[in-house]
Amino acid sequence: MNQFDDYLNKAEAQYSRYQALLDKGVARELARIGLPLTLYTEWYWKCDLHNIFHFLSLRMNDHAQAEIREYAYAMFALVRLVAPLACEAFLDYELGGMHLSRLEVESMRKRQPLSTENSRELAEWEAKQRSLGL
Length: 134
Description:
Largest sheet: none
Number of strands: 0
Helix content: 55-70%
Mean pLDDT: 89
Number of domains: 3
Low-confidence stretches: none
Structural class: mainly alpha
Order of helices and strands: HHHHHHH
Number of helices: 7
Shape: elongated
């Protein structure tokens, strides 16, 4: 038997110990402490659409890291199979929509510059105007 086979056998034996601890009533979180990091984790997730869409709006954003965006797109594809109409609304109103503050709405109505000295608000407003083609 070579070293690699020995290594894999020990990993399998550790998993057997993990299962034995579960059978004795030890919590999974505690029993898996001795498992090697090479094992995959499987979990089940319960969540409502509101919170899933909130997560996706943050993670599908252009400012999110590429890896989490890919994860979010894959997740969105799965959710779309279950709730296609809600997903279309999410695309229309959240990802494809824009939120305007009270100051921004007033500025648009009055056709005047944004009445604030806050540089961050001004930068956000300018980005929104560019996005709207104004």
